[in-house]
Fold this protein.
Amino acid sequence: MKLLQLQNSIFHHDVILGKLHLKIKINEESIMSISEEIQQIINNGSLNNKITETLSPLEETLRSEIYAEMQQIHSEFMSLTEDVLDESELRRALVLRYIELKSRWIMYNTRLQFRLLLTGDSDDQLVYTASAISLFLEAMEQILTQRDVESINQFLVEPVSRFREEPSVVEMPVTIKVKHNSTELSGISILELRRR
């Protein structure tokens, strides 16, 4: 077997098995480690350009504040690739990081929807932070499988649907202490909370 590097990212294999001669071309990206994939995608200049472009309409102070938060997210990704050396653990950590960022994005959007509903006004910090986080999520989705992304999204939506299906009365045991004629009585009762 002979290995020739044709370009920086493409390798050509000549495999000869008796009378059979195979030529195999391998793209180096297909054999990249998860750590290298994360570094390549997160350090990609286009991600930074998209974030900068997204934040450009903001006034300088707010833009700098949100950009600093995005730089922190970037640094955390780089630390992750340096600290977690096992590929399977790094993939697991990437999934957890995706869940964390996706949860933040969902929370920002929930707050925005209610703010718009109640006041008719949006909050630029929430809008633009959610938008910038969505760019990180989009980048991470290039590494995660479609099945992973779908499972995570289902998992994040499920608690809401499960909460809606629960009965309207929630019982919680509470301890009640009452002073009556300088005598302290204590007991356990069930407190019912009714959802409206």
